[in-house]
Amino acid sequence: MASDRNTHLGVFMGSKWTSSGLGSKVREHLARTASTDPRVVFRETQRQGAGCEQARTCVKNVGAGPPAKALMAREMRRASFCFVPPGDSATSSRLYDAITALCIPVVIIGEPLLVPSSPHW
């Protein structure tokens, strides 16, 4: 709904820890910020087998599966900015999910960002 737009300043949903040292540091900082600023939303999801099955916040090996993916899309639509920190892989659907949700992606990188080279971009 249009009334839900921009109820959050920024949002991040995903694992707090990655194999990337920079990614984990950025995510940890986002979590601390969210704990002190109610306008910033940080919702941690976990890999299957980490106790997330009951909470239904599991993340599959590639991208977040339902229902976590649907919840992430709803939260992104409610935010002005979507944080896209580095993760376990060079590419992430989080950037494209943010664009689709009309949320301004805040890309935090430590290496070149790979984007499609299509003329439609």
Task: Give structural notes.
This protein is an alpha/beta fold and 121 residues long. The protein is 28% helix and 21% strand. The chain is built from 3 helices and 6 strands. The chain has helices at residues 21-36, 68-77, 93-100; strands at 8-14, 40-44, 46-47, 58-59, 79-84, 104-107. The protein is globular. Mean pLDDT is 76; it is low at 60-64.
N-to-C order of helices and strands: EHEEEHEHE
How many helical stretches?
A: 3
Summing up helix and strand content along with how strands pair, one would put the structural category as alpha/beta
Helix content: 25-40%
The spatial strand order of the largest sheet comes to 2-1-5-6
The mean pLDDT is 76
Describe the main β-sheet briefly: 4 strands, parallel
**Unreliable runs, pLDDT <50, ≥5 residues?**
60-64
- Tally of DSSP β-strands: 6
Any chance you could write out the topology, listing elements then pairs?
Blueprint: E1 8-14, H1 21-36, E2 40-44, E3 46-47, E4 58-59, H2 68-77, E5 79-84, H3 93-100, E6 104-107
Parallel strand pairs: 1-2, 1-5, 3-4, 5-6
